[in-house]
Specification:
Elements: H1 4-14, E1 17-23, E2 29-35, E3 39-41, E4 45-51, H2 55-62, E5 65-72, E6 77-88, H3 91-97, E7 115-129, E8 132-137
Antiparallel strand pairs: 1-2, 1-5, 3-4, 4-7, 5-6, 6-7, 7-8
């Protein structure tokens, strides 16, 4: 990759879903499909919305290690980011990523106690393309 931030950022922005992996209480990975990230700061910090009551939130509160995975099926290019997740429940974080239509998932709106923000902070990644892979640091 010539420009890691540009290549990875563009791919993140074009995908409609991403996969997030957490570590469960027994030490096993647990992967879930999620809607695309709501906001990103470069490729280091990525914000997603989710339900506070979800199993993954409980997992992240016990073990912050995580992976995000994005796949462009058309060209079979993939990006895996490793890092840590912080569960944010403060109103400023909720307001920051709230979108029209979110009320369908969080009926009480921005102040819904079952609405929270996952702040993913990447430390490294791996890019897969043309039957090759490349590790990168962030």
């Amino acid at each position: 990759m010539r420009d890691t931030v540009k290549t990875v950022g563009n791919m993140i922005d074009k995908q409609k879903i991403c996969f997030i992996s957490s570590i469960d209480g027994d030490g096993f990975p647990n992967t879930k499909a999620m809607l695309r990230p709501r906001k990103r700061e470069g490729i280091k910090t990525i914000y997603l919305s989710t339900n506070t009551s979800s199993l993954k939130v409980n997992s992240f509160r016990n073990n912050s290690k995580a992976c995000l995975y994005f796949c462009d099926r058309r060209f079979y290019r993939c990006i895996m980011l490793k890092g840590n997740v912080e569960v944010l429940t403060d109103q400023a974080s909720k307001d920051m990523i709230w979108q029209i239509g979110d009320k369908m998932y969080y009926p009480l709106g921005k102040t819904d106690p079952d609405y929270c923000v996952l702040k993913f902070t990447a430390i490294s990644g791996r890019y897969y393309c043309s039957f090759k892979s490349e590790d990168f640091e962030i």
